[in-house]
Amino acid sequence: MRSKTLELACDLLSRPSVTPKDEGCQQLLESYLTAMGFTVEHHIINNVSNLFAIRGTQKPTLCFAGHTDVVPAGDLSSWRTPPFTPTIEKNKLYARGAADMKSSIAAMITACERFIQLYPEHPGSIAFLITSDEEGPALDGTQAILKILEARQQIPEWCLVGEPSSTVKLADTAKIGRRGSLTGYLKIIGKQGHVAYPQLALNPIHQAFIPLAEIAAITWDQGTEFFPPSSLQFANIQAGTGAANVIPGILETNFNLRFSPETTPEHIQATVEGILQKHGCEYHIDWILGGKPFYTAPDNDFIRKVATTIEKTLGYAPLLSTTGGTSDGRFFAQYGTQVIEVGPVNATIHQVNECIDIDELEQLSALYEAILVNLFVS
Ligand SMILES: [Zn+2]
């Protein structure tokens, strides 16, 4: 017989909720949450579906955070099973969103059901903030709802994000922060001409070689105990008309930095532009700051309680880390909320044949329940 967590996970996974679509996932969650006594609100902002639910009026509030949207399935012919038909094979559940992160949402819901049944009058409050815009621009999702909560003085003290934080086995890694993300969109401007008459042209490819190599070779910092060193990676570069006898007029490139708190966006921008200017490049650059670094100290009470619960429940202590891509945890952190991310193994996220181990799905629900107990009643 399928467990309640598996049933709910499959129900969510059968809905093709590619960003920003929700396909009824949050309505389904509402039915579970209202049955447990949560007050549920839906906020639809520019086609993005958001659900906020809360049970209790006391502080502190633990907010479970997650997203019902998924990235596109990608190459359908490479999937062994249809991506939106959840399929169990050899004790693994396959579907787009199985690890990132509909299984976590199912585990959060069933953990709350059992916890509330045992401790209906527990101190503190439990909340859910679920969006359908985590994998997209993330403007009308968590960020927008937190603004509403701030105006109502309902910012949660604690946030547990269910993103797939684990590497090899469940909760071997928990994320306590993230590096910042900064992207530069750079155009190096030359003058188009005939390759036989270079004196009448200005070749932006030649202009770019030395400064771009210099930028790529910068050591930004050494990182800190909980942050790897900052890193700049070029992601795209284009120039040329396709013809072999034309010097192009422009070179376009973009690069992204994942940076630690040891480096600031202002320092990065000044350094990059300083190199371009030093080499006499004519250029235009647009900077997009995806997020500043954030971090909840590991000796913080909330982080310690979650980490010790993991150790008690699973028999090993989690590695507390700040690696990986951005998550909505960054928006909570801006308001002073203490944030930890604990979720499934991330080996298959955003890939074809995304999956979660069924036993780990059940363990995850048990772990979330144990975290609730440790935070509110022990
Ligand atoms: Zn995710």
UniProtKB/TrEMBL annotation:
Q: Name one Pfam family in it.
A: M20_dimer
| Co-factor binding details | Binds 2 Zn(2+) or Co(2+) ions per subunit.
- Tell me the residue numbers annotated for binding Zn(2+) 1: H67, D100, E163
Q: Which InterPro entries match?
A: ArgE/DapE_CS, Bact_exopeptidase_dim_dom, DapE_proteobac, Peptidase_M20, Peptidase_M20_dimer, Peptidase_M20A
- On the tree of life, the source organism's domain of life is Bacteria
Query: What does this chain do?
Result: Catalyzes the hydrolysis of N-succinyl-L,L-diaminopimelic acid (SDAP), forming succinate and LL-2,6-diaminopimelate (DAP), an intermediate involved in the bacterial biosynthesis of lysine and meso-diaminopimelic acid, an essential component of bacterial cell walls.
Under which name does UniProt file this protein?
A: Succinyl-diaminopimelate desuccinylase
Give the Enzyme Commission number.
3.5.1.18
